Amino acid sequence: MIAIIFGPPGSGKGTQATRIEQEFHLAHLSTGAILRAEVTRGTEIGKEVGRIMAAGDLVPDEIIVSIVRQRLPESEAGPGVLLDGFPRTVEQARSLDEMLAEEGHRVDFVIALDVPEDVLVDRILRRAAVEGRADDTEDAIAERMHVLDYYRQKGVRVEVVDGMGEPDAVFERIREAIGISSR
Ligand code: AMP
Predict the structure, then answer these.
(1) Catalytic residues
(2) Residue 79 belongs to what domain range?
(3) CATH assignment at residue 122
(4) Residue 183: inside a domain, yes or no?
(5) In what order do the strands lie in the sheet with 109-114?
(6) Per-residue pLDDT, 183
(7) Cα(183) to centroid(ligand 1), Å
(8) Can you give the pLDDT at residue 134?
(9) What is the spatial distance between Cα 105 and Cα 8, in angstroms, rounded to a whole number?
């Protein structure tokens, strides 16, 4: 099973991804976490992407795709994969489809966390104050919509889940959405 969790910064994507991973025993592949580790370790990639990430911009597709190309095979060896923070552009989505097709796999479903803009801004500002993380950009927002359209057009199930409320309540909605999609 290949699933994608999709949501803007501040949507609770990271929290929910960890819970989905534990509940459904999926290999959790987070491009944001991989990139942050590269920055911390001061690798070549880390030096290249540090400033981009701090500005809240998207890291170039080539870098992201090459990271996923390296990491995906070990994740695909298990019962399922949860992709977190990837793909974020249509170009990345196309590359992912190609990589998966090589193994006879495909994206089974996308969980898109939906949180109203004003709530996101509020959460992001609070997080920026605590973690020093930057804002989302308009380009990134538009690109996310294109990615969802891309999957819808391909007939991949996109489950839009209300991301408001307590993490437990949101997770319950995700569980229901996954239950429906596996029937
Ligand atoms: P995240 O933890 O998913 O919010 O990612 C943190 C930051 O890493 C993002 O703001 C981007 O700068 C970068 N990043 C993570 N995943 C991607 C991706 N798939 N494409 C481009 N940039 C990414």
Answers:
(1) 13, 88, 127, 133, 144
(2) 2-178
(3) 3.40.50.300
(4) no
(5) 27-30, 81-84, 2-6, 109-114, 157-162
(6) 41
(7) 32
(8) 54
(9) 26
pLDDT digits over 64-86, tens only? 999 999 999 999 888 899 999 99
The answer to the question of residue 167 being in a domain is yes
Q: Which of 13, 58, 67 to mutate to test the pocket of ligand 1 (most atoms within 8 A of CB)?
A: 58
Residue nearest to atom 12 of ligand 1 (CA): 53
pTM of the entire predicted model: 0.89
Helices (H), the chain: 13-24, 31-41, 44-54, 61-76, 90-102, 117-131, 138-153, 167-182
pLDDT number for residue 132: 55
Decide if 120 is inside a domain.
Answer: yes
Distances (CA, A) of 146 to 11, 44, 45: 18, 30, 27
Q: Is residue 86 within 6 Å of ligand 1 at its C-beta?
A: yes
- Average pLDDT of adjacent 10-residue blocks, the chain of 183 residues: 90 93 92 96 96 88 96 91 95 97 94 87 71 62 89 96 95 88 43
Domain total of the chain: 1
- Sorted by sequence, the CB contacts under 8 Å of residue 165 that are 6+ apart come out as none
β-strand pairing of 81-84 with 157-162: unpaired
